C-alpha cells in the first residue's frame, strides 16, 4: 500500500510566525488572499507542499490563522491531519490562542507533532530557556507531551536544520482504504475551462475519475456529482486514498459554487444522509471555570462545519471541568458525519473552546436517549473494532440491531458489513431481513421474541374467542421493546417452521386453533361462500349482499365474525376473500412470473395472468404487499415468499 503524504497543520497564536516559518521551510507563501497580503495576517487556510523534507515522500502543510476571530477557519484546517506544528514566539511565550489551539489539537486526537519556538533572534538565551520550559509544561497533559521542541529563527535560519530533521523523522500512518469515500470540503473555487473544484483531506475510501459522489448536506438527498478529474498533493493523480490531500474537479447538472463549499462533505452516495442529533463522547476542558449544564447552547464544529446547537447530557447532572460523559448534540441544522469524527464545542458566543470529543452515533434518537438500554448501545460504539461493537450492541438489543444504520454510522461497505457474519466472529448472530431492512439479532434473543409473539397471539385468541390473530405489520409496535420488523419476521418464520403459527394473509394466527360458527352464521356462510366469486371475480360486501338479498350492514358484521373464525381475510375495507381464493390469485402471479423467465412483474402482467381488471389488480397487489407475499420495487413487484405459506393453506393441508 502506498504511503500517503504527511499532512501537518500549523497551530499557535496570531503573529507568532507560522506563515514565515512555512515559507522558510517550503519556499511558498501560504497567504494567498489580497487582504492577507495587505494586513500581514493569515485569515483563511493556506497550503504548501514539498518533497525536500522527507526523502521520497511529500509533506503537505496547512497554515491556519492564529487570530481568535478566525478560530472557525483554524478548526476547518485540522480535520483528519497527521501531525501538528505548534508555533510559539520566543518574545511572547505561550499566549491565549497557543493554549486554545493546543486544546483543540488534543480534542481532535492529534498525538504526533513538533513545537517550534520562533523569533529566537529577538530574545536572550536565558529568556528562551524560560519560554521553552513554560511551553513544555503546557504540553504535559496533552497528546503532544513527547513532541520535540526546536528553537528557530525564520529571519536568520538558525535551528532550521534541527527542525527539518525533526520533520523528516515523522512518518505518515498507513491508512487502510476501507469504508466509503469521504472528504470534508474546506475550499471551493472555479477553474477556467474546468469548472468547480473542491479540496479537502481524504478521510476514508478511494476516489477515481468518473466516480459518482454526493455533496451533503444539500437538500433532501444531497447533490449528485461526478468526478471529472483530481489532484493529490497538488499534482495530477489517477486516484486519491485515505490520508491524501486532494482537489476534485466536479461535474453534474446541479453543480453550483454557490451551493457547494466549506461545511459540506463530498461522500460516497450511501453516506449522504444527515442528522441533527449526534451522540458523542464528550470531554469538558479542565480550564473551564464552571460545570457544563444540560441543554447548554454551543457552537458545534465537525469536519469543516460550524453549527449552533445544544448539549443534552445523557448520564448525569452537570459535567465538571476535566470530566467525560456521554452527551447528545441537538443541532439547529443537519450535518453529515460518521462515528469517530472529531467534534469541537465552543461557547454560545463562539469566543471560547469549551470541550469536544468523538462522535459515537451519528443518528441519535429524539426520544429515550437517556434510557439504560440506549446508554449501553452508545457505550458499545466506543469499541474501535466493528465486530466487538456489534457484539456489545447485540447483547443489550433484545429486538435486534439495524445493520444498515450500524454500517452507515461506522462507514462500512457492503463487503465489510458482510464480513461481520464470518463464523465465530460474533457468536450467536442471526441475520434477518434484506436490503434496507437488514438486521441482526442474537439467537437467544430471537427465541425470546418468538415466545413473546406466541404469548401475544394466545392472549388475543383467549380474550376474544377468535382465530383472526394479529396483523403482522403491527407486531413490532405491540411487542415489548419495539423489536425491528426484520427480526419479528425472522421470529415468525421460526414459529411457522415449528408449526406454532400460520400466516393468514397479512395476519398471523395460532396454528390449529378453530372457532365454530353459530348455527345461524353457518347457514349464512353456506349461502355467502359460493357467492364471493360467483361472477368470476372477487366481490365486495355490497355486491354479495345485493346478490343474496341480505342487508349490507348485517353482511358486513357477518364478515367480521367469519374473519374471526378464520374463514375469510379482509383484502380492503369492503372486500373479504377466502384463503383459497387469495392463494389461487397468488398462484397466478407465481406461475406467470415463472413462465416469463423474469424476477419482477407489473400491474399489467398480473392483470393478464389473473384475468382481473386493472383497478382490482392494483387492490389485490397492494394487499399482497401488506401480506408479505410481494414487495413493491418502483413500478414492479417481486415475490417474497410462497403463496401457500403466506395464506396458511399449506398448514391446513
Describe this structure in words.
The protein is an alpha+beta fold. It folds into five domains: 6-169, P-loop containing nucleotide triphosphate hydrolases (Rossmann fold, 3-Layer(aba) Sandwich); 182-271, Elongation Factor Tu (Ef-tu), domain 3, CATH 2.40.30.10; 275-372, Translation factors (Elongation Factor Tu (Ef-tu), domain 3); 383-501, no CATH class; 519-652, Winged helix-like DNA-binding domain superfamily/Winged helix DNA-binding domain (Arc Repressor Mutant, subunit A, Orthogonal Bundle). It is built from 21 helices and 32 strands. The strands form eight sheets. It has a six-stranded mixed sheet with strand order 2-3-1-4-5-6, sandwiched between helices. The protein has a six-stranded antiparallel β-barrel with strand order 7-9-15-12-11-16. Helix 18 crosses helix 19. The longest helix has 22 residues, at 443-464. The radius of gyration is 32 Å and the shape is elongated. The mean pLDDT is 92.
Amino acid at each position: 500500500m502506498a504511503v500517503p503524504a504527511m499532512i501537518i497543520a500549523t497551530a499557535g497564536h496570531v503573529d507568532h510566525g507560522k506563515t514565515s516559518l512555512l515559507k522558510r521551510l517550503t519556499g511558498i507563501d501560504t497567504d494567498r488572499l489580497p487582504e492577507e497580503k495587505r494586513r500581514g495576517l493569515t485569515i483563511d487556510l493556506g497550503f504548501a507542499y514539498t518533497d525536500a523534507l522527507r526523502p521520497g515522500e511529500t509533506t503537505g502543510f496547512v497554515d491556519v490563522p492564529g487570530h481568535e476571530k478566525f478560530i472557525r477557519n483554524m478548526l476547518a484546517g485540522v480535520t483528519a491531519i497527521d501531525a501538528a506544528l505548534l508555533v510559539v514566539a520566543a518574545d511572547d511565550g505561550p499566549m491565549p490562542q497557543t493554549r486554545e489551539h493546543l486544546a483543540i489539537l488534543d480534542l481532535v486526537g492529534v498525538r504526533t507533532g513538533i513545537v517550534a519556538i520562533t523569533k529566537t533572534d529577538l530574545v536572550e538565551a536565558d529568556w528562551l530557556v524560560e519560554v521553552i520550559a513554560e511551553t513544555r509544561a503546557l504540553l504535559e497533559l496533552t497528546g503532544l507531551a513527547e513532541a520535540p521542541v526546536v528553537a528557530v529563527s525564520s529571519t536568520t535560519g538558525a535551528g532550521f536544520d534541527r527542525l527539518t530533521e525533526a520533520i523528516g523523522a515523522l512518518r505518515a500512518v498507513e491508512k487502510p482504504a476501507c469504508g466509503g469515500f469521504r472528504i470534508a470540503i474546506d475550499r471551493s473555487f472555479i477553474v477556467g475551462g474546468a469548472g468547480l473544484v473542491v479540496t479537502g483531506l481524504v478521510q476514508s475510501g478511494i476516489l477515481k475519475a468518473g466516480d459518482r459522489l454526493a455533496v451533503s448536506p444539500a437538500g433532501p438527498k444531497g447533490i449528485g456529482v461526478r468526478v471529472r478529474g483530481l489532484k493529490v498533493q497538488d499534482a495530477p493523480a489517477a486516484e486519491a486514498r485515505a490520508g491524501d490531500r486532494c482537489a476534485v474537479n466536479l461535474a453534474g447538472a446541479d453543480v453550483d459554487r454557490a451551493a457547494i463549499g466549506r461545511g459540506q462533505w463530498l461522500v460516497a452516495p450511501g453516506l449522504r444522509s444527515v442528522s441533527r442529533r449526534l451522540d458523542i463522547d464528550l470531554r469538558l476542558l479542565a480550564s473551564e471555570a464552571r460545570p457544563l449544564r444540560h441543554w447548554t447552547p454551543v457552537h458545534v464544529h465537525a469536519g469543516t462545519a460550524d453549527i449552533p446547537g445544544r448539549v443534552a447530557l445523557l448520564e448525569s447532572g452537570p459535567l465538571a471541568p476535566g470530566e467525560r460523559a456521554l452527551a447528545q448534540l441537538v443541532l439547529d441544522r443537519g450535518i453529515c458525519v460518521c462515528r469517530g469524527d472529531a467534534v469541537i464545542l465552543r461557547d454560545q458566543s463562539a469566543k471560547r473552546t469549551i470541550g469536544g470529543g468523538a462522535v459515537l452515533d451519528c443518528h441519535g434518537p429524539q426520544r429515550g436517549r437517556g434510557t439504560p438500554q440506549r446508554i449501553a448501545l452508545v457505550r458499545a460504539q466506543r469499541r474501535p473494532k466493528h465486530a466487538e461493537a456489534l457484539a456489545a450492541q447485540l447483547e443489550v438489543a433484545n429486538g435486534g440491531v439495524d445493520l444498515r444504520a450500524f454500517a452507515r454510522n461506522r462507514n462500512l461497505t457492503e463487503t465489510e458489513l458482510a464480513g461481520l457474519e464470518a463464523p465465530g466472529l460474533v457468536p450467536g448472530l442471526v441475520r434477518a431481513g434484506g436490503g434496507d431492512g437488514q438486521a441482526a439479532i442474537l439467537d437467544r434473543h430471537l427465541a425470546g421474541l418468538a415466545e413473546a409473539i406466541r404469548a401475544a397471539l394466545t392472549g388475543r385468541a383467549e380474550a376474544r374467542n377468535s382465530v383472526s390473530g394479529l396483523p403482522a405489520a403491527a407486531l413490532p409496535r405491540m411487542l415489548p421493546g419495539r423489536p425491528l420488523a426484520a427480526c419479528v419476521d425472522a421470529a415468525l418464520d421460526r414459529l411457522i417452521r415449528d408449526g406454532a403459527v400460520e400466516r393468514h394473509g397479512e395476519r398471523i394466527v395460532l396454528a390449529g386453533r378453530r372457532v365454530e360458527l353459530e348455527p345461524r352464521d353457518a347457514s349464512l356462510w353456506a349461502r355467502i361462500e359460493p357467492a364471493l366469486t360467483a361472477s368470476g371475480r372477487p366481490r365486495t360486501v355490497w355486491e354479495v349482499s345485493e346478490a343474496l338479498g341480505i342487508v349490507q350492514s348485517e353482511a358486513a358484521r357477518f364478515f367480521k365474525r367469519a374473519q374471526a373464525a378464520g374463514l375469510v381475510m379482509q383484502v380492503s375495507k369492503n372486500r373479504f376473500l377466502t384463503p383459497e381464493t387469495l392463494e389461487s390469485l397468488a398462484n397466478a402471479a407465481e406461475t406467470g412470473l415463472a413462465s416469463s423467465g423474469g424476477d419482477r412483474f407489473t400491474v399489467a402482467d398480473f392483470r393478464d395472468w389473473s384475468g382481473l381488471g386493472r383497478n382490482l389488480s392494483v387492490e389485490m397487489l397492494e394487499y399482497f404487499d401488506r401480506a408479505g407475499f410481494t414487495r413493491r420495487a418502483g413500478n414492479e413487484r417481486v415475490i417474497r415468499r410462497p403463496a401457500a405459506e403466506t395464506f396458511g393453506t399449506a398448514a391446513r393441508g
